[in-house]
Structure prediction request, 418 residues.
Amino acid sequence: MHTEHDSEPLPWHDPSVSQAVSPSPSTRVLSDQDANVSHLCETTQPTSQSERIEICRPYVFGDEIEMIAKVLWSGQHCGDGPFTRKCHRLLEETLKCERVLLTTSCTSALEMSAMLLDLQPGDEVIMPSFTFVSTANAFTNLGARPVFCDVRSDTLNIDETSIEALVTSRTRAIVVVHYAGVACDMATINAIAAHAIFGYSRGQAIGTIGRFGAASFHQTKNYSCGEGGALLINEPEFAERAEIIREKGTNRAMFLRGQVDRYTWCDKGSSYLPSDILAAHLWVQLREHEFVQRHRRELHEFYMTELSAWAVEHEVRLPTIPADCESAYHLFWMMVPSLDLQIQLTDHLGNYGINAAFHYQPLHTSAMGQSYGYKRGEFPITERAGDRLLRIPFYTGLSLQHAASVVDALKRFDGWKQ
Prediction:
């Protein structure tokens, strides 16, 4: 199951300086979206926040405003309008998923999956400790207990070899997070599966392998409408009830299709429908997924080529993509030898006008994690990732020229001797 991750505040930028692109992805030439981003060189330091290379930035294709205007003038701004249906069809057909329902966030999709499982107080849900808090909250809010698991050192995905020992008579679900867009070993894990929309494992779309998948369309994700998500339903017997939960516990969706003459309260639920304004924005993003995937793959390969020798020299671990996976290329991370070096590298890049950051802090060592009886030292790989992981700029609008500036700044760091 995919889940959301933490994000740093990002400056909103004027659409007038965002990249405008041609209708055909094959004819696009990528350039940096913001004309104010300086081309950094060894003697130039940034003079304002607007000149910094951000760690991530939402991409704007140029058609979003036109599609949003269509919704505004249509008079139907609420959920499940024409653009919501377009998004549903596109995702269902592209991912070969039984049913897709847009939600207000990935958190909402996770909460819906927990309701569909009818979790009860005392039930257990296995999940990685290295994940965002929504992964746990969606299940603990219903009284379930999180059972944390360590991650693999190569992909930072849940360690599939550790799961079996955690299964008890109370286990109701296994929640996996496809970190950075790289699939977990789903051949070993027969699980529930947002980093990874349009990622694949052994030819099957991530999110369509377990009973449910959850995707995020937050501002920091590959495809964004600001805030948004989707529940991917892979077993058709859950589709009707999912509609009811999503519509505040009512059968309103059946009413709108003319299947009942009025709708009423049928089940537990909440308001999980995004506005069709957001869906219009998202539809433009999703229809360009081949362009997005292609450029992000190029960026990832560029970083790997330019940094591989440097990483070996300084004992830095770069991300691994197993041979049977097609990554969604959500982010680019590295694991440095110590927490001190992580802090120093972050500050060093900042001096060159480049934003870099840590990522998830282990859930098992948080105040809530400790309230379930967990303590530091139980999951060493997760704890090392919390201390030593460094994310560098990686987003669809990042040009190779600016990626080269990031590489150059990394190679100028001389604080390796501790």
The first helix runs from residue 64 to 74. Residues 359 and 386 are 7 Å apart (CA to CA). The longest strand covers residues 99-103.
